[in-house]
Amino acid sequence: MFKIGLQDERHALLPTGPRILFITATRIGDAVISTGILKHLLRQNPTARVTVACGPVAAGVFQAMPQLERLILMPKQKMDGHWFKLWGQTLGTRWDQVIDLRGSGTALFLLARHRQILKGGRRPGSRLGQLAESMGIAPPPLPIAWYSEADRARARALLPNGAPYIGLGPTANWAGKVWPPERFVALFQRLRAHALPDARPVIFAGPGPAEAALAQPVRDALPDAIDLTGRLTLPQAAACLARTALFVGNDSGLMHLAAAAGAPTLGLFGPSPVDEYAPSGRRTAVAVAPGPAGKAPMDGLTVEAAAEVAMALLKDEGRIAA
Q1: Number of neighbours of residue 302 by Cβ within 10 angstroms
Q2: What is the average pLDDT score of the chain?
Q3: Molecular function (GO) terms listed (predicted)?
């Protein structure tokens, strides 16, 4: 979805410490959710050297992670060939801990002092809670967005101090999760009229024609928008999101990244399970389309309903009077 902009291995010297292999998601959203587990592990093991194995699209989530020794990209291959390749790339290391959040069983065939394998299948409750429970961690640690000082500088250049910014995330990886673009426009205009009169819209979307097409109607209707479509790595996107007064987006990896970056985040839900994938962060809320849980059409979510939740979030943030 976003540009990766990384190398496969870190060449800087890391402290000598336990070696951890962390096998995580192919999608950005699930990868972001898993960062809470990694954050906990790093706090427990401040000298650990961590190897992360994940899908290529999600790689940028871990690019700026401290104590990252190696990043192994796992493009999907026929006949589960990506798992055999991962095994070959990790077989020669004696691991202190192998954590497999994808339930592949790879950990069973590696030299490891400790193994933790998440069982497959859907379970009730939030995805974050499921991961934490599988690790014996309570309460679930909130996700984190890692980015560098260079990423902060890029964000400051793109979104300088001044008027508040409202981030808009009008894209998703499935058309069914996309709120109509004209409603993003109407919601922004309502928030600017009644809450943040000097606000500027910022459009966030990944590279590629599909993302650009979904963002285009919003861009056309808001000529003063700062358009970041396809311009950012994931760490840069996180640094930019952290500068927004509010982010409103469809259920997507970008929504999870915004929450992890600390932005006040409003997630929009319809035919996806809000109980499992609501954004996890200190300042988050959801607006859910009416209808059967996980099956409601997005066009059932009105601008009025989303605006009510957004205004409440801004009040909680002290951006507008209670």
Answers
A1: 15
A2: 93
A3: ADP-heptose-lipopolysaccharide heptosyltransferase activity
210 falls within a domain: yes
Residue type, position 41, single letter: L
Q: What is the mean pLDDT of residues 86-96?
A: 96
Distance CA 270, CA 274 (A): 8
In the chain, the number of structural domains is 2
Structure tokens at 119: 């069982």
Q: How many residues does the chain have?
A: 322
Tokens at residue 143, please? 């996700």
246: part of which helix (H) or strand (E)? Answer: strand 246-250
Instruction: Give the single-character DSSP code of 15.
Output: -
Tell me the backbone φ, ψ of residue 97, rounded to 5 degrees.
-150, 135
**pTM, two decimal places:** 0.94
Partnered with residue 168 across adjacent β-strands are 203, 248
CB 55: neighbour CB atoms within 10 A?
19
C-alpha pair distances (Å), 164 with each of 36, 72, 304 = 28, 38, 22
Which residue, 105, 135, 165, sits at the end of a domain?
135
Buried/exposed code over 241-253 (b: 16+ C-beta within 10 A; e: otherwise):
bbbbbbbbbbbbb
Omega cis (within 30) before 139: yes
Shared domain for 193 and 113, answered yes or no, is no
Residue 15 pLDDT: 57
- Provide the token pair at 24: 């995580």
